[in-house]
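tokens incoming
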């Protein structure tokens, strides 16, 4: 081999040898990585030997096959006793899946909660939101909406009210009232002589008394005696109008206050409240009971003469004088002259006196004629009975819709002369869209009631506790890990009917057991992965052995070529030296 060829070969061998040594180093690093992977695999396997899972044993039979899951907790079934189990965060808020969260938003429930239990209208919006998010069917929602909202479920009781309710407008409610005589007590009565006796307790000061209904003007119906139902009052326009006799020496203000107080004490008002209580199905529903009592108290305040004040000759009375408080408008401040047995103004009847259309409560009319020494000055006290009934229902609707969230109001407005009365309010009327819950059947299908009560419990808790959205809770491994690490808690209903938050370990039905299935899977994974790593290591060992052989061969050839080159160079020098 020539010198040039030997040198070229030497360079080729050197490059190849360097490449083999580099490959050998790479394989060595890969073997180190395999060793690290094997160590990690071993650690994972060792850790899996302690792996546990949460199981739910509702019947206490030692069952270990039912894993605790979000679906089991939030779907009504015998497994949870038809009482939801809430996953809650550290602040107590219910953790909702995206579907439940969408239903809460549809109902208008903020994430911080409402802090109270709203009306069945909000509950029904929640059920409809569950339909829209795919949790339940429309047919199921319609069924549950037809069952009375269990407002106390999970808030002091677990007893279901198995009654069927139907939502009705005011007009439908009154039609139902007319058709079901069992709802009504003895109709209210008006006898001119009997009512005059009641109103006339103080020194025969009532001169005249009329019960007017129908139209507002002079052609309104005036009756000496009548019977009427709650429906008659609300569909009509009933007004009680009185005129008062007095002498200056008797004191006109005392007469007005006396008659006003007697109007407030008429039996018709208690009869009206009893009728409403029967009609609105108050018994057995704490939410309706609370709204009823609030509406009753506020309506009774409208009837109190303590809220009256007298407009007298342009001057207002001091607060508290003769039991009056504040200032009362005299029918828009018009002082009417007196002529005959009823208020008139220049020979024309003053319609407001008869109708009191804009007034809710007891109205006072002061005669302005100057002759103070004669009887029959005819001051007056009047009240619109229909407006009182509507005011009661308006207060009731406000409470059911939520104060601050209702479109209705019974407000006070001041007139220009500083006087005050309750008027110009947005009262509920026959054609309004507010819906009353009316019990129409009892003893309904128990299964349907149980499911309805289940969803009512969820609704009640998110209204009171608030909620947060986390769709990962649908992943059972995630849910259980969050529970075991204390990042989530279980909130369940206790025997006293209230929900309490606690650790999973304190729950009677939840147990933590060794997860044999997970351990078996981990062992199978360990064996499989270990075998793969061993195979990879064997392949690397073989490749490295082949590289070592090649490197050894290249080293031998390298040494041989280098020796040849050295001899050729030596021979060349000897030739020229000779």
């Amino acid at each position: 081999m020539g010198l040039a060829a030997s040198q070229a070969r030497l360079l080729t061998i050197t490059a190849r040898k360097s490449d083999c040594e580099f490959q050998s180093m790479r394989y060595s690093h890969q073997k180190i990585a395999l060793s690290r992977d094997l160590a990690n695999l071993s650690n994972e396997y060792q850790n899996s030997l302690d792996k546990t899972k949460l199981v739910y044993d509702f019947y206490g039979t030692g069952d270990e096959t039912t894993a605790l899951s979000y679906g089991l907790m939030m779907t009504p079934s015998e497994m949870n006793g038809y009482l939801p189990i809430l996953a809650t965060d550290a602040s107590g808020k219910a953790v909702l899946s995206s579907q439940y969260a969408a239903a809460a938003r549809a109902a208008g429930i903020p994430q911080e909660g409402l802090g109270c239990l709203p009306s069945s209208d909000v509950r029904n919006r929640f059920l409809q939101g569950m339909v829209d998010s795919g949790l339940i069917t429309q047919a199921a929602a319609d069924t549950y909406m037809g069952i009375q909202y269990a407002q106390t479920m999970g808030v002091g009781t677990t007893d279901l009210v198995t009654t069927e309710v139907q939502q009705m407008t005011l007009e439908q409610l009154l039609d139902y009232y007319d058709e079901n005589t069992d709802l009504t007590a003895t109709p209210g009565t008006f006898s001119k002589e009997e009512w005059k006796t009641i109103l006339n307790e103080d020194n025969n000061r009532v001169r005249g008394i009329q019960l007017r209904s129908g139209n507002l003007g002079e052609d309104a119906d005036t009756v000496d005696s009548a019977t009427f139902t709650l429906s008659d009052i609300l569909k009509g326009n009933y007004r009680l109008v009185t005129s008062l006799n007095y002498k200056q020496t008797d004191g006109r203000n005392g007469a007005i206050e006396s008659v006003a107080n007697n109007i407030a004490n008429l039996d018709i008002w208690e009869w009206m409240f009893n009728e409403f209580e029967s009609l609105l199905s108050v018994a057995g529903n704490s939410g309706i009971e609370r709204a009823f009592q609030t509406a009753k108290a506020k309506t009774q305040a409208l009837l109190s003469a303590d809220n009256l004040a007298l407009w007298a000759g342009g001057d207002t009375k001091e607060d508290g004088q003769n039991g009056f408080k504040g200032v009362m408008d005299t029918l828009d401040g018009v002082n009417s002259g007196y002529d005959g047995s009823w208020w008139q103004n220049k020979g024309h009847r003053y319609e407001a006196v008869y109708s009191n259309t804009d007034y809710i409560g007891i109205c006072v009319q002061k005669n302005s004629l100057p002759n103070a020494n004669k009887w029959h000055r005819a001051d007056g006290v009047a009240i619109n009975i229909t407006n009182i009934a509507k005011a009661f229902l308006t207060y009731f609707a406000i409470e059911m819709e939520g104060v601050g969230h209702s479109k209705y109001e019974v407000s006070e407005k001041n007139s220009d002369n500083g006087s005050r009365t309750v008027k110009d309010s947005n009262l509920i009327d026959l054609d309004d869209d507010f819906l009353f819950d009316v019990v129409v059947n009892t003893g309904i299908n128990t299964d349907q009631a149980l499911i309805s009560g289940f969803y009512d419990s969820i609704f009640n808790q998110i209204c009171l506790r608030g909620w947060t959205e986390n769709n990962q809770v649908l992943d059972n491994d995630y849910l259980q890990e969050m529970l075991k690490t204390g990042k989530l808690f279980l909130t369940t209903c206790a025997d006293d009917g209230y929900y309490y938050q606690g650790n999973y370990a304190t729950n009677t039905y939840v147990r933590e057991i060794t997860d044999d299935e997970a351990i078996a899977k981990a062992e199978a994974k360990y064996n499989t992965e270990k075998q793969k790593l061993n195979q990879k290591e064997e392949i690397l060992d073989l490749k490295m052995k082949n590289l070592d052989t090649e490197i050894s061969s290249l080293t031998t050839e390298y040494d041989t070529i280098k020796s040849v080159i050295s001899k050729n160079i030596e021979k060349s020098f000897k030739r020229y030296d000779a």
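note: Residues 307-356, 369-377, 413-422 have pLDDT under 50 and may be disordered.
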